[in-house]
Amino acid sequence: MSIHTGFIFPTYTSLVTETLWSSKPKEASPVQEKPIIQTIQPRINVDQDVKKFFTYRDGVAERAATECAEEFLDMESEGPVLGSFLLTQINHWDTDKERLILLTPKILLVVKYDFIALKRLSYKKLPLEDIEAIIIGDLVYPNGSLIP
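Structure for HSac2 domain-containing protein, as requested:
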């Protein structure tokens, strides 16, 4: 098992023709109708054995991703799952949030999943065209905590 850290995003090209120095407008060339797929290569290498992490015990993360895909995704309209990711955020109150992310050709599915009780709590579907940027980095604990 490996931790996936690469993302694939569609980028759409559009054509704008404008004539500045000529009295005759130029013929517009056809717009590419198929999306261009831009692959961002992983920048984070994890040298840990993922089987040591609580979430990855006995294939729990894989089962959670499969359950969420079956329940929340319409494979015909949203496409197949391209990858699944587990994201963690730790804030200054020393609370952590884990989200299971499923990536399809059209949407990013963000699922709040309880890995102890093994149940889905909530989810959000984000169209890929609404996403402006994704920041990839190492998990870093805050310098200090507001809890004694």
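The helical segments are 60-72, 75-78.
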